[in-house]
Automatic annotation (TrEMBL):
Protein name, entry field: F-box domain-containing protein
Record-annotated F-box domain positions: 98-132
Compositionally biased residues, Low complexity: 67-82
SUPFAM superfamilies noted in UniProt: F-box domain (SSF81383), RNI-like (SSF52047)
Native source organism of the sequence: Urochloa decumbens
Domain F-box/LRR-repeat protein 15/At3g58940/PEG3-like LRR, first and last residues per copy: 187-407
Stretches for region Disordered: 55-86
Top-level division of the source organism's lineage: Eukaryota
Stored Gene3D superfamilies: Ribonuclease Inhibitor (3.80.10.10)
Length: 409
């Protein structure tokens, strides 16, 4: 399924078209619908945890029943004493002690509440209204669904309104449960507002399709971003007229996105603080990963169809994480003096090159074909294939200071 080719051929690849594609393959096992849902479920499972748990999950913590602020675990479980009887002051004297706290502490409390509950603090007093206005906003679409969600308002518009209405800055926005199809104007306004309000953390997924829905160029204006995870988008083309302003970006994840090779290269070139790059389940575009970055520390290629991975000039790169589909590709290491972790290196699918030399079983290893910094290596090897088994001793010579070897047969 070449996503890039579909983009050049016309309109968006819709959910129905992808389902038809899977059905045309005549695959046994799960239905096309189940395969599509599985892809998205896998993508979501790879995301970092929510900054604030969704309200519907707040009561699911198994530790809530036994946790106590005033006693040990043994006392809490065995005594059965009434905490109010032990601490009469806890009953309350009618005094608003919380409002006596400094504004900075109140703002910290508000920032730990779900979106709707945080907004409701404005009704407590005039002072709380001011604290709310100055608190960096946190919006999570999981906080806007269910019984307490905005009745009759699409979640896409609810998220956009939350951002537009907040008078202060925006700390974090997480949207993973909605489709932006036929909501292009709302999407554009949302990204424009996020850029203007200095969003720091953005997780934005288009669920479930179209696969090549264009992401507005306003994403390139979000100069305050420190973390950016995008899912199921066509990333805007980056050129001299539309350069990203990601001077603070440290972590970027592209999940099932269509991104041109030139745009990936431009991201690496114009993100001076970028430390983590993840390309996940991308098919066809990008076609190759060519790493030239003075700041990158971790690069991840997880189940994508890249034709090759080249570490050209990455003086700070410490980890190169690979999980490959059934597709052969070269892995080229040219300049990575601090590389400590490499894997999984598939001895059947990967052609390892170091310093421009293809590494082959039994070859004479010289200094220019070694990576002295490598400490941890993970390999996939089929010992029934003689040539793969013979590669292991050669790899030991290529990585002379190896401390740990993980083998998957």
């Amino acid at each position: 399924m070449d996503a890039a080719g579909d983009d050049e051929g016309g309109g968006p690849m819709t959910y129905a078209e992808i389902e038809q594609y899977f059905n045309s393959l005549g695959l046994e096992g799960p239905t096309a619908q189940q395969r599509i849902d599985c892809i998205f479920s896998i993508i979501i499972s790879l995301l970092p945890p929510r900054l604030v748990p969704a309200p519907e999950a707040a009561g699911d913590d198994s530790d809530d029943d036994s946790f106590s602020l005033t006693s040990s675990d043994s006392e809490a479980s065995g005594s059965g004493a009434d905490p109010l009887a032990l601490h009469p002051a806890a009953i309350g004297d009618g005094t608003d002690h919380i409002s006596r706290l400094p504004d900075a502490l109140l703002s910290n409390i508000i920032s730990r509440l779900p979106t709707l509950e945080a907004a409701r603090t404005v009704v407590l007093s005039t002072r709380w209204r001011g604290v709310w206005a100055a608190t960096p906003l946190l919006v999570d679409d999981a906080h806007l669904v269910g019984a307490d969600g905005p009745s009759g308002i699409p979640i896409v518009r609810a998220v956009s309104r939350c951002v537009a209405a907040h008078p202060g800055p925006v700390r974090s926005v997480r949207v993973t449960r909605v489709s932006f199809y036929c909501q292009e104007y709302v999407l554009q306004r949302l990204l424009a507002d996020l850029a203007d309000k200095g969003v720091q953390d953005l997780i934005l997924f288009n669920r479930p399709w179209p696969l090549n829905m264009p992401l507005p160029e306003d994403i390139l204006r979000c100069a305050s971003l420190e973390r950016l995870y995008l899912g199921v988008w066509q990333f805007p083309e980056i050129n001299s007229a539309h350069l990203p302003l990601f001077n603070k970006l440290r972590d970027i994840g592209l999940f099932h996105c269509i991104v041109r090779d030139e745009s990936v290269n431009a991201l690496l070139a114009h993100c001076p603080k970028l430390e983590v790059l993840s390309i996940v389940l991308s098919y066809g575009s990008p076609s190759r990963l060519h790493i030239v970055s003075r700041s990158l520390r971790v690069a991840v290629d997880w189940n994508s169809t890249l034709d090759e991975v080249v570490v050209q000039d990455a003086p700070c790169l410490e980890r190169l994480i690979l999980q490959t589909l059934e597709r052969r590709r070269p892995i080229k290491i040219v300049g990575a003096p601090r590389l400590e972790v490499l894997g999984f290196l598939d001895l059947n699918l990967h052609e390892l090159q170091i310093g421009g030399t293809v590494i082959r079983a039994g070859m004479n290893v010289r200094a220019r074909t070694t990576v002295p910094s490598l400490k941890i290596l993970a390999v996939t090897v089929h010992f029934t294939r003689n040539q793969e088994a013979k590669m292991l001793p050669t790899l030991f010579k290529c990585f002379p200071h190896l401390e740990a070897l993980h083998v998957l047969d």
